[in-house]
Amino acid sequence: QALINKVRNTPGVRRALEFHDRGEIVNGRREWYHVSRLFNRDEMVAQAKLAYDMQWYFPAIRTISQAQYWDDLDIRFPMAHRDTLVREAKVRGLHSSWVFAITRQESAFMDDARSGVGASGLMQLMPATAKETARKYSIPLASPQQVLDPDTNIQLGAAYLSSVHAQFNGNRVLASAAYNAGPGRVRQWLKGANHLAFDVWVESIPFDETRQYVQNVLSYSVIYGQKLNSPQPLVDWHERFFDDQ
Predict the structure, then answer these.
(1) Residue 14 belongs to domain spanning
(2) What digits encode the pLDDT tens for the residues 108-117?
(3) Mapped to the 3 state alphabet, what secondary structure does the chain carry?
(4) Out of 4, 31, 130, 211, which could bridge 205 as a Cys pair, Cβ 3.0 to 4.6 Å?
(5) Which listed residue (106, 132, 209, 239) is catalytic?
(6) Would residue 31 show up in a list of annotated catalytic residues for this protein?
(7) Domain closes at, from 47, 76, 105
């Protein structure tokens, strides 16, 4: 606690917290990352704990990762937006641990995350996907900007994830790949598969990003299953082997 207080009183951290308290989140993050470069490993871990205690989850995750401190699973895998994520997973008939894992992989709980290709929010939805999902599932979406609202984003993301899940017969491995790379590509990668083991198929994914994405999501699902007191295996029995779809 003494080290956390020392870090809190560092001028750069104080400036970051002032920006955060004023709602200037982007400036706050920028100042936060700048000062973290001046800290040693123990100070970075303390800085991450400070952010976590403030429920400022993305800087906490990023800082603890930069410190290469892997043992604190609370900071690395926070239960951010728990009520909404659990509720929407239940509404869509999905494992809560999987929806948490997808969200953790997509944005690391940065509410205002935007990708270079235009995906937005916690579950990184493309504008066309958000619009079509809102129409299909009768989810109110007054404007494209509303996709950045955490509750709306999770509603839309869980609904879209459930549609992809259904397309691949409830297989989370294939649905995770499809959420990242698109259902069409996944069907293409399945061509010729004949009772192919899931781990062999994952290793054969030609996109490095998608291969790592699926591996992360499966691992994160196990971690979140433990945190939710609902342990899940890495894959269920029906997800172990794939055939051409």
Answers:
(1) 2-76
(2) 999 999 999 9
(3) CHHHHHHHCCHHHHHHHHHHHCCCHHHHHHHHHHHHCCCCHHHHHHHHHHHHHCCCHHHHHHHHHHCCCCCCHHHHCCCCCHHHHHHHHHHCCCCHHHHHHHHHHHHCCCCCCECCCCCECCCCECHHHHHHHHHHHCCCCCCHHHHHCHHHHHHHHHHHHHHHHHHCCCCHHHHHHHHHHCHHHHHHHHCCCCCEEHHHHHHHCCCHHHHHHHHHHHHHHHHHHHHCCCCCCCCCHHHCEECCC
(4) 211
(5) 106
(6) no
(7) 76
Q: Are residues 72 and 87 in the same domain?
A: no
Please write the tens of the pLDDT for every residue from 125-157. Answer: 999 999 999 999 999 999 999 999 999 999 999
Q: Do residues 88 and 69 share a domain? A: no
CATH number of the domain enclosing 154: 1.10.530.10
Q: What is the mean pLDDT of the chain?
A: 96
pLDDT band at 244 (very low <50, low <70, confident <90, very high): low
pLDDT of residue 235: 94
Q: Of 28, 55, 76, which closes a domain?
A: 76
